[in-house]
Amino acid sequence: MKKIILTLIFLVCSGCTLAQVAIERVPLGSGTPGDHGMENATQWDLDLYHAPQYMPGYPTASTIFPRAVAVFCVAKESGIQCKGYNWVSDMGRAEYLMIRPVMVKEFPASP
Q1: Core vs surface per residue 77-97: b (16+ CB within 10 A) or e
Q2: Which long-range contacts (CB under 8 A, 24 or more apart) does 35-39 make?
Q3: What is the pTM of this model?
């Protein structure tokens, strides 16, 4: 009986934290290169997600440089939608880019 109750509690609690996160595809950044629209991201940690990205020179035989990119996101009925990002050389070297959602009410206006 205890196992059944614990299993039910786990299922209810795990459903509360999981939300579908989609990030905008950008040619030299987030999402599958060459595609348009949104890309689903996979949760790796509590507030870190991973989606395919533009990765020049990948794979390498050298040290792997993971990075987390903060992106603006809004909550929608279908889940969380995030703006895309471009990775530029000024940001340093990176092979594995994770996204960290920063929740806002609406996306900031583009310059």
Answers
A1: eeebbbbbbebeeeeeebbeb
A2: 38/81
A3: 0.69
